[in-house]
Amino acid sequence: MDQIKIENLEVVGKHGVVPDENVLGQKLLISACLHTGTRRAGQTDDLKESIHYGEVCHFMDRYMREHTFRLIERAAEMLAQELLLTIPHLEKLELEIKKPWAPVGLPVEYVSVKIARQWHRAYIALGSNLGERKQYLDAGVKALDEAGGCSVVSVSSWLVTPPYGMTEQPDFLNGCLELKTLLEPEELLEALHRIEKEAGRERTLRWGPRTLDLDIIFYDDLVWESENLCIPHVDMHRRDFVLRPLCEIAPYKRHPITGITVKEMLEQVGEAACG
Predict the structure, then answer these.
(1) Catalytic site residue from 99, 114, 134, 253
(2) How large is the angle between the packed helices 185-198 and 133-146, nearest 10 degrees?
(3) Contact 121, 220 (CB under 8 A)
(4) Are 143 and 198 contacting, i.e. CB atoms less than 8 angstroms apart?
(5) What is the 3 state secondary structure string of 12-61?
(6) I need a surface site. Which of 32, 225, 265, 268 has the fewest CB within 10 A?
(7) Tally of CB atoms within 10 A around 191
């Protein structure tokens, strides 16, 4: 991806652990590498097709003057988030905040914090088989779209499917959505669990009935395994009720381990059922 760089923008901010730093303020230097596509702007000579770096500079200056943080780690995190949420065409950035007057009691040129943040693409499976199933699913989509650092890009149709695993329960209503998010995988999982809980989800039986079930299927092309989370979802390639709605919105999305597309996985599941 193309880059637009801003080096050592000088701003004044009241940030620091020492009380006087929050009152008197001090000089800070901000550098940002903005990742975006510049080809369209290069072809049309139209600034609207790119990122206006002048506006970005003024945005950073204003944000650092209007907010106060104890840690420059916090300042960098919040500034990066606001830039990604606010600036059109910005997909990723590296941000460094330098503190030339850091109160360390020794000669030092500066102390800095440098971070990289970006938008991620996740695919989420949704399911419900209790109560007003469609209302639960629609509310889940709305809650995700309104969650901090999240934006729903597309949603499949809702499909009626038989229960999986524990079959003595009502049919499910299932679907999938594409999500643009700033959240890291574990943070996204926490957000999904919070939305499930708000919908009255009770985790009592594995594969049991539920008001709302939200699962991370893909997250970029990440392969991830922790105590609480496995990406891609371990059983997705076997589940018709995941693959059918997912194929509506991302038929050519490839499994990061096998390289097989969603469409091909769905065809394999169909062949296995026929066999």
Answers:
(1) 99
(2) 140
(3) yes
(4) yes
(5) EECCCCCCCHHHHCEEEEEEEEEEECCHHHHHHCCHHHCCCHHHHHHHHH
(6) 225
(7) 20
Say which residue the tokens 């000088």 belong to: 10
Give the model confidence (pLDDT) of 205-244 as tens digits.
665 678 999 999 999 999 999 999 999 999 899 899 999 9
Domains and CATH numbers, the chain: 2-118 (3.30.1130.10), 120-274 (3.30.70.560)
State pLDDT tens for residues 63-85.
999 999 999 999 999 999 999 99
pLDDT recorded at residue 200: 84
Determine if the peptide bond prior to 232 is cis (ω within 30°).
Answer: yes
pLDDT at 272 over 60: no
Exposed (0-12), middle (13-18) or buried (19+): which is 33, by Cβ within 10 Å? Answer: middle
Contacts of residue 51, defined as CB under 8 A and 6 or more positions apart, other chains included, come to: 4, 34, 36, 87, 88, 89, 90
- Give the contacts of 179 (CB within 8 A, at least 6 positions apart): 121, 122, 123, 124, 144, 150, 151, 152, 153
Stated pTM of the model: 0.89
Q: Check residue 85 and give its pLDDT.
A: 96
Determine how β-strand 172-181 pairs with β-strand 230-231: unpaired
Residues 6+ positions from 226 with CB-CB distance below 8 Å? 186
195 by Cβ neighbours in 10 Å (0-12 / 13-18 / 19+) ranks as buried
Amino acid at 161: T
99 is catalytic: yes
